[in-house]
Specification:
The protein is 60% helix and 0% strand. By secondary structure, the protein is mostly helical. It has a domain of 34 residues. It starts with 11 loop residues before the first helix and ends with a helix.
């Protein structure tokens, strides 16, 4: 199993807030592009799966 450089454990409230931020489409693209990898890391994806 590949090592993870960053381990992220979000609370339910944090996860919901970030998901709403991405799905609303009301925020700057830069902010949305930074939130996506955070949500993937929280789901257990490895760094190689998240980063291109």
């Amino acid at each position: 199993m590949p090592n993870k450089k960053y381990i992220l454990n979000l609370t339910d409230a944090e996860r919901e807030a970030l998901t709403n931020l991405v799905s609303s489409g009301q925020n700057k693209a830069r902010r949305i592009s930074r939130v996506g990898p955070m949500l993937l890391a929280d789901r257990g994806y490895t760094d190689a799966q998240i980063l291109p």
